[in-house]
Design brief:
The complex is a heterodimer of chains A (263) and B (398). Chain A is α/β, with parallel strands linked by helices. Chain A is 28% helix and 31% strand. In chain B, α5 crosses α6 and α7 packs parallel to α11. The chains are: A alpha/beta (263), B alpha/beta (398).
Chain lengths: 263, 398
Amino acid sequence: MNIIVCIKQVPDTTDVKINPETNTLIREGVESIINPFDMYAIEEAVRLKERFSGTTTVITMGPPQADFALREAISLGIDQAVHLSDRSFAGSDTWATSYILSQAIKKIKDFDLIICGKQASDGDTAQVGPGIAAHLNLPQATYVRKIDKIETKGAKQTILVERLVEDGFEIVEIEMPCLITVVKEINEPRMPSLRGKMKAKKAQIPVWGKTEIGADSSKLGIEGSPTHVVKIFTPPQKQGGVVLEGEPEEITEKFVNDFKQYL
Amino acid sequence: MSIKIIKNKCTGCGLCIKACPFGAISMQDKKAVIDIAKCTLCGACVQVCKFNAIEISRQQKKQQKGLEEYKGVWVFAEQRSGKISSVVFELLNKAQQLAKDLNTYVGAVLLGYNIKEKAGELIQRGAQKVFVTDMLQLKEYTAENYSNAIVKLIKKYKPEIFLAGATSCGRSLVSRIAVNLYAGLTADCTGLDIDPKEKILIQTRPAFGGNIMAQIVSPDNRPQMATVRHKVMQEAEIIPDARGEIIEENLTGEIIDNRVKFIKFIEEITSTVNLAEANIIVSGGRGLQGPENFKILKELAETLDAAIGASRAAVDSGWIPYSHQVGQTGRTVCPKVYFACGISGQIQHLVGMQSSKIIVAINKDPSAPIFKVANYGLVGDLFEIVPLLTKKFKEIRK
């Protein structure tokens, strides 16, 4: 089974600090990591490969430094990587991003399953996964917490998954090739192996731009994106709260008296 | 498309460096320099520059033709087994305001099987037109069938705005629709307004876990699509004698994607209320010390009709299932009241709950970061404080 994993490099939010004077993000020295949800996507791909053999490929769209994220994925057991990077990709919204990723996937061609993380920690949209599926006209299952079964039914291969929803979970059977997005519950990612690290260091990672993926220039970057940001601002800071210290009986009484207006 | 610093206007004040969410600007020889590899052309720097020294030039985009034909504000009426999700009523309230500003109608899209009778509920909540497709194959939600059906309806009736709940169903569905229609889509909006001049939808959403707010527009494509989380908007009031039109739209089997089979839905009831829909959430973290101690939170939650949440620490320790996890690798919630009990308040947790309207923190460490975002902080032992709260709220509720 051949699997493609789509990942994104994001700032490590544990390092995000707010400048108290300007109320803006301090980004200097913020490290980049693989989006946390994508770690589960990588692990699931590696596990499926261990069970069914085949090739795992990781792809990302991002600036030159996203190369590190791809190498980390290889150190975690992914076989090969492709880096999508082109100045014309900058400013892409989720529509254009999913278009670019889907064009690259068309070029890779031979795949049974695409795995993405549920959403990226910086954008939080959860739109790119289903967007890729729509561009490729593939069936999808989002918020997958478990793969129950993969089986061959005649000429078809199907995957039976559990998707996490607000009030429980759904069991859905979809035909492959297809796309799934995964949540944390699906597995526990492994640490990189020494062999993996060596492999990651030596890996040749091709960089594909708009020509390589045969993209329509009018669908890329800012021009290709239906949405655009007109303004960015920092939200008004929360008013300093009330902190109550002292005897539990006393402080809970005080709190409840003040708070009950909201009930 | 490009960005540039106009060197003779730049004074080297450094405001743009502070404003850049991507760390793409630095100062060289007292002039700002943009690292284009990091720049995403978001425009944050352009707005803060007091000297108009930064310019983003954008080619005229190709506008979709016939934008003026698009009329109406539509809401996707998400339902399961005939029960319409509460987020739909919240969206219908917002849709009424938007439709008023645009001088147009409020529409609702209802898909399902034997579902037509539910149109009345939507009309009572402010929908003036309900578009119903009743089909056995649409009985259960699948993103493929539902998006195919909605794409057909949108192409035929041309709404200018399309809203859906930012639920596991809504989010997965609208992205497919937006791709198919080449429409702009903005996730998790906390504010939706009409620009009085341009008559377009201004979508406000948090970015970077709520540290920054962004305003987004899709001026050249229709419909303008957005998702909104539960509890961000107020529910529309019920008007018992409201009138509306029901438009039955029969679609053929071509919208059905046979590659996907819905097998079943399994409800997981670990508490009485689910996190997304809860007005109040009581969450526990490492401070609970063990799975058995969630009992004291459950008592408080039951008293307040609240849902139970948890920090990653509690979930990773196996004290409570993952479906309760709030935070970066769990769910994002915005209830009216969020009780954080024995949760220190790591940034990964805060990004999942800091948009809650009122935050109450209970922690024995007065320097815990959770107190910085809390409206009420109770410093002390949660094993003493939480049961006292339960007792006092019970007395009030009587």
